Amino acid sequence: MADALDRLGLPYSWHQVVPFIGELIPAPTINDPHAVVMFGSYTLWRYARNNDLKPGVFKIRPFVHEVSWHPFLLNGADALFLKLRDVPEKLPDDGKSWFLRPVEDNKEEPGNVKSTGDIIDLANKVLALEEREIPKGSLRHDTELMFTEPVNILKEWRLWAVRDKIVTFSLYKEGSRIVYRNEIDEDALEFAKRLVEANPGYAPAYVIDICRTKDGLKMLETNCINAAGFYEADLLELVSSIDELAVS
């Protein structure tokens, strides 16, 4: 991203985020607090809020709550939803595997597949702590989780949407192999455009992940654009579109 910013002649600065506190080192010099976009840690939204920086961080709503996307979801509409505190009692320890992730886009736990035994062990470890002992950004007693059956995925893409338009994309997985290439199948790009059109105004800018399965193209999830990996996206296109959005 720094290379793209340099090539476009846009000013920027680097900062270290103090863990759990959210302050920046060194403190930034800001000429216009309403023309600031922050990339890096998801927790930067707190700094942006506390210092009235705009657009700052483009927070998003949980994608599973967006009814217009339910017909397209791979996981979500028919998921099992449990608060972490309820997992030991309500999730049967039957050896079954689940794909799980937090409902909120807060990075408390990355989406992954675990056995019920491992999930219950994880929940018990968190529940053994007092709420005040749990660092910010970690799983908490009241974290809502979604559980779905694992599905064999053939390809996965990440696309960046700004002002309800796809501005760039990247392949990031083929089968079980991590593969970063700035490419996408034509039908997959059209599918992503349909998703964006189906839910206009979801957020000024966000990331949407889609996949190909044996049953066709599906929507995986959305992510906060400020804290999402870039893979092989066209960063000149992304930076230009974000700058235009921030200026306007």
Description of the molecule:
The chain has helices at residues 2-8, 44-50, 87-90, 116-127, 186-198, 235-247; strands at residues 16-17, 24-25, 36-37, 55-56, 80-83, 97-102, 112-115, 144-148, 153-162, 165-174, 177-181, 205-213, 216-223. It is α+β, with helices and mostly antiparallel strands and 248 residues long. The strands form four sheets. A five-stranded antiparallel sheet has the order 11-10-9-12-13. Strands 5-8-6-7 form a four-stranded antiparallel sheet. The chain has a two-stranded antiparallel ribbon with strand order 1-2. α1 packs across α6 (235-247). The mean pLDDT is 92.
Number of distinct helices = 6
Low-confidence stretches: none
* Sheet with most strands: strand arrangement: 11-10-9-12-13
Number of β-strand runs? 13
Proportion of β residues? 25-35%
What value does the Rg take, in angstroms? 19 Å
Please identify the structural class as seen in this structure.
alpha+beta
**How much is the average pLDDT?**
92
Cα(first) to Cα(last) distance is 21 Å
Judging from the principal axes of the Cα atoms, what is the shape?
Answer: globular
Overall helicity: 10-25%
The ordered H/E elements are HEEEHEEHEEHEEEEHEEH
- What's the main sheet like? 5 strands, antiparallel
